[in-house]
Amino acid sequence: MFIKYKTQGRRKAKNIDEEIAWKRRVKNNTTVNQTEPSFDQLFELSNLKAKLQAKDTTIKKLKANIKRLNKISTTNSVKKDIDEIKTINIELEHRMAKLIAKNEHLKQIYKQLYDSIKPSRVRAKEHVESLVNELNQKNIEITDLNA
User: Fold this and answer.
1) Are 65 and 59 in contact (CB under 8 A)?
2) For residue range 3-48, what is the model confidence (pLDDT) as tens digits?
3) Which sequence ranges form a coiled-coil region, renumbered to this chain (predicted)?
């Protein structure tokens, strides 16, 4: 009877819209006439659903692990960067300590040089002053003799 209805419906269809409407009716009629699944089919469906649910659970766990590992790797990367920065900082502090010590040593050397130059300068100044005084006295003696 289904075949007769199908062929008769096609003969009666005058245009495409009627053909589409007829196919929808046939589709709806076939879904209503389907038989109920057997116990074995229901059992198999429930087994498949259980397997699917287990796989979904596994996928969710794997996604959670991936997120956790991404966080761990990011944390490890940050820790590694921090360790590298600390190492560089320690090296710079060591260099700075060496430079400070060298600077202090140079300050002492220059202070000693300045201190050693200062008395020589004072002695040279005193010597120049005594020579100037001597010269002035000689000039006075020469002017007294000439007068």
Assistant:
1) no
2) 444 445 444 445 677 777 767 776 666 544 456 778 788 888 888 8
3) 45-141
Helices 16-32 and 2-12, axial angle in degrees (round to 10) = 160
pTM of the model: 0.39
Length of the chain: 147
Angle at 107 between CA 105 and CA 111, to 5 degrees: 120
- In Å, how far are 131, 137, 139, 147 from 142, measured between CA atoms? 16, 9, 5, 9
Instruction: Answer yes or no: are the C-beta atoms of 3 and 9 closer than 8 Å.
Output: no
Q: Residue 85's pLDDT is what?
A: 93
Q: Which residue has the tokens 């005594």?
A: 130
Q: What is the DSSP letter of 94?
A: H
